[in-house]
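G., before I forget:
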Amino acid sequence: MKQMLNIALPKGRLGEKVYAMFEKAGFPCPAIHEDNRKLIFENEELGLRFFWAKPSDVPIYVERGVADIGVAGKDILLEYLPDVYELLDLQLGKCRMAVAAPRDFHDDPRRTLRVATKFSRIAKNYYDAQGRDIDIIHLNGSIEIAPIIGLSDVIVDIVETGTTLRENNLEVFATVVPISARLIANKAGFKFKNATIEEIVRGIAAQVETKA
Amino acid sequence: MNTDMILQGDERAALALRALYHSYGYTQYKMNKFEEYDLYVQNKDFLISDNVITFTDTSGKLLALKPDVTLSIIKNGRRTGGVEKVYYQENVYRVSGRTHAFREIMQVGLECIGEVDAYCLFEVLTLAAASLAAISEHAVLDVSHLGIVSAVLDTLSVTPDTRRALLSCIGEKNLHEMTSIATAAGVDADKIALLGQLISSYGAPGDVLPVLLPLLRGVVADGILTEFSDLLTALAASPAGEIVRVDFSVVGDIGYYNGLVFKGFVAGVPESLLSGGEYNGLMRKMGKSENAIGFAVYLDALERLHETDMSFDVDTVVLYDDGVTPATLAEAVAALRASGKSTLALRTLPEKLRYRTALIFDGKEGTLREANA
């Protein structure tokens, strides 16, 4: 039986765009186009198994080796620091991790800065590098309301178009790090399925370069 | 009795590895379960995890459950010149990166300390490869040299922070991030290209070295290149050669490791289960003038690799009642055990027990009959 290469893709629009890149690179799985709620699709002939996963879970599947490769946002990689290889920047899902606050915010360095975020590690590293004393308030969603209702001074969150911030009278004060989707690989999987993974990387890298 | 049924994958591997190291003349090093906490505070960067389980001894000393074995061997070794070759099998206690909780990890490994020469390096790498081969027929031993990585990073003249970030990119095979960090730091394009080549190179020594060595001449000291090339060429020609790969993404702490560093993988285990290298830097930090190389095999990862067929809990269940004398029942059980069958004597059958055969013991006759006959 052909050795299967397991590929974890993030559910949603980003995952669909990434799958199209795999298809164009010569690694298709036609069953994925069927209109159903299945989460796992196989192309036995090519030895490929794609599965849709929650975007923030993709690095877990890859680090634990049930997926040999996968696609995850740089935000997730920086926050959870999975022990994986980061092989390509796909230049998709581009946005930035930013510090945002109410328009009239003025940072008073004499006081501990209260930071609301879903990305505690990224926020801590960013302010540690500046030697700034902060109080991290970890939230799981609707981060934007934290400074409006007085829970925090600023937020550290992902900003795409900035519309949500504007509508809540917030604005970006600093960019922490640019974010985009990355192709990651399990360290052991990379060794034992190297030829196929390298071929996929070459096929997708060529598409990224063409777009750039 | 088939011991394979009894031994777990990690226990089987531990026996095979100890026999392997013993056959090369390495002697077993047995150490205390506890070590003074100070040892780990002074060398905490060498540890995989900072967290150590500590307690106060009856004498008031702060002790720790060993999170590492190498530091104890260096500290406690009584070397009198030459080379000391030791192996160990110890449990260590440290926080798992994945679960963020303390775990007990069975570790088997070896250390070669003293006048380490080219043969010692070759022997240790051969034993690392043989250790992996003893665990699985599908294995890979990735070998790197920190002298080469350091020399290439030295040419970039970047700040310590940037250097650290670039080293982390090498470890992740992260070519795009390395390019963007180095470009932002004003590094020349040809130097970025060389670092990129180092990150992208992966494969058998015979494929990688002919391409890479000419690029590294003039950047890395000839002595280091020759040592690395000769060693890997010799390894490639040996029985271990098939599984050896050059991979500069194997990076350790440059303050502790100085030369060869290597990691081993087997198919079916998602992370490296063997890790080692030359740690002369650590020896100097601990005030020792000798050189050293060693590796450890982390056996906890093998639990799921060699899953034995456990579709039955026991071969035979013998059911008995009040009319039975212990001696006659014991005789019947002994006869079944002698025929190689695991035998469980019980009054009633537990609901979820998985057994091949259930027998009823007739105490008066001293005979066994099928339970469902």
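The longest helix of chain A spans residues 194-211. DSSP finds eight helices and eleven strands in chain A.

More on Monday.
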